[in-house]
Amino acid sequence: LMFLIPRMEKDNAKRGVMIQGMFRSNFVLFGLPVAISLCGEENIGITSLLLGIIVPIYNVLAVITLETFRGGKPSVKKILTGIATNPLIIASLIGILFNLLDFSLPSAVQKSVNDLGGVATPLSLVALGGSFMVSKVKEYKKQLTIGVLGRLVFSPLIMVSAGILLGFRNELLIPLLIMSGAPTAVSSFPMAQQMDGDGELAASLVVFTSALSILTIFVWVFVLKTLALI
Length: 230
Prior knowledge:
With 230 residues, the chain is mainly α. Helices cover 73% and strands 0% of the residues. It contains 11 helices and no strands. It has helices spanning 5-8, 12-23, 27-39, 45-68, 76-84, 87-100, 107-131, 141-165, 174-181, 188-194, 199-226. Helix 2 (12-23) packs parallel to helix 11 (199-226), helix 4 packs antiparallel against helix 5 (76-84) and helix 4 (45-68) packs antiparallel against helix 6 (87-100). The longest helix has 28 residues, at 199-226. The radius of gyration is 18 Å and the shape is globular.
């Protein structure tokens, strides 16, 4: 994408947003619920492990991408600072540390944390929907077409095909499908705004991929079940 998108789009503010929107999926929101639905709760261990690895990687790559196309010469110092201060990366590292130390919160605090975690993504979508500008859709038609097809069609096509060739089936293949076929992450919108990317394009990518993924995920699952791969 770092090689292809600059040849399709001239505006740096849109380049970073398009690349981020095409590789950074909302795996956290879609991952476990879809995996439980398809595999059963007893077979979601791989999906859970993948979540802990993919979320920090997504955020590191997003910082590198947006900083690269921020304007001017990319600064290694700024990229490293952005990675070190990214809230999602910090949260992931703290979570891993707590897990390694076998640290658990008091039940009353844990319930509050779980409740906050459950409302975070829906609240983000409400805020994003409030800032979404329908009038900008026509202006971004080319970028949205490339971004939506890249996120919902070509990304899962490449990743799932690679998984099949490697011999992955059932609960091994489903996490790859969800990770690569889920809509663009909601957190890509505020990050694009913070790093001088085109925030309106980022919001549009989240809205359109979220709406259309209802259809595309169904089609991918139907095709893979028909071929007896999941």
